[in-house]
Amino acid sequence: MNSKVLIVGAGAAGIAAATRLFRKGFRNLEILEATNRIGGRVHTVPFGANVVDLGGQWCHGEKDNAVFELAGPLGLLEPSVVAEGNVIIRSNGELVPQELTDRLMEVAFGIMELEEIKTYHGTLGKFVTDRFRNAMAEANNQDIDQELIQQFLVFFHNY
């Protein structure tokens, strides 16, 4: 195809778009990048005697997602959940029932309001994780599967 296509950004999405367009027969492609490197938010930087990777920490969605298609089969991704408003969607697209969503959010936000958080000497993450797991072990939460509990904890830590 002879149409000229301009792609803004040489991050994962821009490179994926160029790749797909090329596979579909487009040859007149140009990618504009504002920085002096490709990769977008994903960036490796020196950190002391080592390096650390900065950038994207979530892979949103499994369908038609170039990052998921590359990293998923290599076992580099963990299943996750995303909450929009009071809706939780698992990375496979499954909608968590509203009643369950409300319970998870209520427990997590309730933990954040505990008085003992003010005098706790560990990390906030450990405080929330320990108390959330204890709450999920109670009889009224036995119907929540462990995978969803883990996915929710990852989501809430990034919230």
UniProtKB/TrEMBL annotation:
Gene3D superfamilies: 3.90.660.10, FAD/NAD(P)-binding domain. InterPro entries: Amino_oxidase, FAD/NAD-bd_sf, Flavin_monoamine_oxidase, L-lactate/malate_DH. Residues 13-104 form the Amine oxidase domain. GO terms for biological process: carboxylic acid metabolic process. It comes from the Eukaryota. It holds the Pfam family Amino_oxidase. SUPFAM superfamilies: FAD/NAD(P)-binding domain. GO terms for molecular function: oxidoreductase activity, acting on the CH-OH group of donors, NAD or NADP as acceptor; polyamine oxidase activity. This is Peroxisomal N(1)-acetyl-spermine/spermidine oxidase.
